[in-house]
Amino acid sequence: MARASTTQRKAVVTVCAWAVGLVIFFPILWTILTSFKSEVDAIAIPPKFLNFNWTLDNYHDVQERSRYFLHFMNSVIISLGSTILALIIAIPAAWSMAFVPGRRTKDILMWMLSTKMLPAVGVLVPIYLIFRDFGLLDTRTGLIIVLTMMNLPIVVWMLYTYFKEIPGEILEAARMDGATLSKEIIYILTPMAVPGIASTLLLNVILSWNEAFWTLNLTAANSAPLSAFIASYSSPEGLFYAKLSAASTMAIAPILILGWFSQKQLVRGLTFGAVK
Amino acid sequence: MATQASRAAGRLMISPAVILLLMWMIVPLGMTIYFSFLRYNLLIPGENPFVGLENYSYFFTDPNFWPSLVNTLFLVGGVLLITTVGGVLLALLLDQPMWGQGIVRILVIAPFFVMPTVSALVWKNMFMNPVNGVFAWIANVFGLPAFDFLAHAPLLSIILIVSWQWLPFATLILLTALQSLDSEQLEASEMDGAGPLARFFYIMVPHLSRAATVVILIQTIFLLSVFAEILVTTNGGPGNASTNLTYLVYSQSLLQYDVGLGSAGGIVAVILANIVAIFLMRMIGKNLET
Lengths: 276, 290
Hints:
The complex is a heterodimer of chains A (about 280) and B (about 290).
Chain A: H1 2-34, H2 39-42, H3 57-65, H4 68-99, H5 105-116, H6 124-133, H7 140-164, H8 168-176, H9 181-210, H10 214-218, H11 226-229, H12 241-261, H13 263-270
Chain B: H1 4-35, H2 54-61, H3 65-94, H4 101-109, H5 116-127, H6 134-141, H7 149-152, H8 154-179, H9 183-191, H10 196-223, H11 228-233, H12 245-255, H13 259-289
Helix pairs in contact in B: 1-13, 2-13, 3-8, 3-10, 5-8, 8-10, 10-13, 12-13
């Protein structure tokens, strides 16, 4: 009796949850489906769900008519570059704050966080002018610098919360056993730190890939990553739903896949450890 | 344990990050403050005289200022309302036992990974377009006239788009919090005869309030700076109907080239964000001590 009602309840919950999930996911699904339609099918009323002529032409055309691959590579280079640069700067800092905390460690962490609260628009004008004067407008280098600085506080914080979880006793035990500092780092700390570093890398690649304030304001034809390039489809001449969908699908697919792996890290990274 | 030498090494390891962030914060922010006191327009060459608070008075009396401030507050408030309430309900639903929980979770979280320009364009063209959009077709099926969302309710449309992007974030964090709830506590209350509503209000709500506060504060920081969604859907229009503070500053500085005025606006935006930031910092700081 009780068992039957739990199964029934589970069935009801399942149906509700799937319905809600599919509604929320629908815009993405629709974009992916539309990317395989012809332009005529894409704007057909009533909409065609699966009964259309599947085609890959849009993917071909998007590359043909624009330098899609260039923008894709810009996205890859900028998001990976800025993340790796931030990691190089942040790892020593987070390391020493986690293992050799000083009196001011907490203040430094809080201060770093406060820089993240600074709205980008508050420094838009000077950054734009500095970039103009140094010839950094519309360059990948410029964008890598900005995104590195934008994400540095999050990177330090995430690494700090991960390093903090490495038990200090292990280090002491290793030292007792006569491990030198280099051995300690290679054999003990690195294996324990790698998962945390990997999660931090993942989340920050996602954040940089999707960043759309600086990419829109500081890039033009040459260095625009996908988040800025896609905006060019907002002009009336670019109103081709199927091609917009194909360009969009390619832009979001890598991140959707990465994102599924990073659900847990997402919570930790974006709440600065306040929710785990 | 920490020796003098290791402390010195520690300081050396922190300093690149600290110095770079310090420069990143102080140099541009200092320049913004400095520019905000100058009459400085990129289209008008020549010297840039010091004009005191003139830019600020222009900014506050700009006919677009109050509408944009109100729009900013509506945008932030509207999205917060939808995502927090929706997030709690979704988290409660996803926390129940069901078949295919992992897949549903992925479906719900997915919008968060879609870049702002893509989601804005997809919604604008394929859903809200009054001729070819899915919504127009749905309205048509029910015999209703098609509604031109972005022309007649631009701010509401943007609130919907941004809510769709942030609902997963709220859901994910609230769900994480919900799953850390001690199930024995729930069982004990159930044995004591607490109904589902009592359990929700006396056990779950207090437990979730912390996570909900974090969601609200962090989202507020990001929502104050919504930009790409407005740029690709309405360009702040029609008129100033969907211009928020960020967009206003952008248009003054990079479209009208008025560096002085844009800088004054930027400072106003910084102050507004700081008011929120103070509360957020306090919460996270408290967490750090435990």
